């Protein structure tokens, strides 16, 4: 939909902004390294959930006792 502004507000053709980025592949090919070229998980999944915050939980909030035996609890399942 065209903008509703008067033609006088538009710059003359010689003064128009022409430094638009060159066209490229809309699918993003070439922007990401292939898996064999290295890179990190952040390159492939930039919007992943940061789970490092979960490591900051102190032992005080652990609902299980310090002497809780995980191995025997799993074997009893």
Automatic annotation (TrEMBL):
InterPro entries for the chain: Catalase_peroxidase
Gene3D superfamilies: 1.10.520.10
UniProtKB keywords: Heme, Iron, Metal-binding, Oxidoreductase, Peroxidase
UniProt-recorded Gene Ontology molecular function terms: catalase activity; heme binding; metal ion binding
Spans annotated as Disordered: 1-41
Gene giving rise to this polypeptide: katG
Protein name: KatG
Swiss-Prot/TrEMBL GO biological process terms: response to oxidative stress
Requisite cofactors: heme b
Keyword Protein biosynthesis carried by entry: no
Source organism per UniProt: Mycolicibacterium smegmatis
Chain segments annotated as coiled-coil in the UniProt record: none
């Amino acid at each position: 939909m065209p903008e509703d502004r008067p033609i006088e507000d538009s710059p003359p053709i010689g003064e128009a902004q022409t430094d638009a980025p060159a066209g490229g592949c809309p699918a993003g090919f070439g922007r990401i390294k292939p898996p064999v070229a290295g890179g990190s998980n952040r390159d492939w999944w930039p919007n992943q959930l940061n789970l490092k915050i979960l490591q900051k939980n102190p032992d005080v909030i652990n609902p299980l006792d310090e002497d809780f035996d995980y191995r025997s609890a799993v074997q009893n399942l």
